[in-house]
Backbone:
């Protein structure tokens, strides 16, 4: 995808394995947003889906793999 192309915003749970995306927004309560920020999920950060296990995700962020349940992954808009 070129820099000029814009995709529709969607939750992280809809991203395909191996696809690199940029975090646009994190929604939820302040505690949830702070928790995700501390794990490295911040607006503008490039992340990718490593794998899916029973609806939960393994996500690569800042050279680290982090497991997220479906509820947390749905809070991340890419």
Residues:
């Amino acid at each position: 995808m070129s820099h000029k192309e814009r995709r529709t915003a969607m939750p992280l749970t809809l991203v395909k394995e191996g696809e690199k995306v940029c975090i646009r927004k994190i929604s939820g309560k302040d505690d949830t947003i702070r928790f995700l920020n501390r794990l490295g999920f911040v607006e503008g950060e490039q992340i990718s889906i490593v794998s899916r296990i029973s609806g939960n995700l393994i996500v690569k962020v800042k050279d680290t793999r982090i497991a997220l349940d479906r509820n947390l992954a749905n809070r991340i808009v890419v």
Notes: The CA atoms of residues 22 and 45 lie 6 Å apart. The longest helix spans residues 30-38.
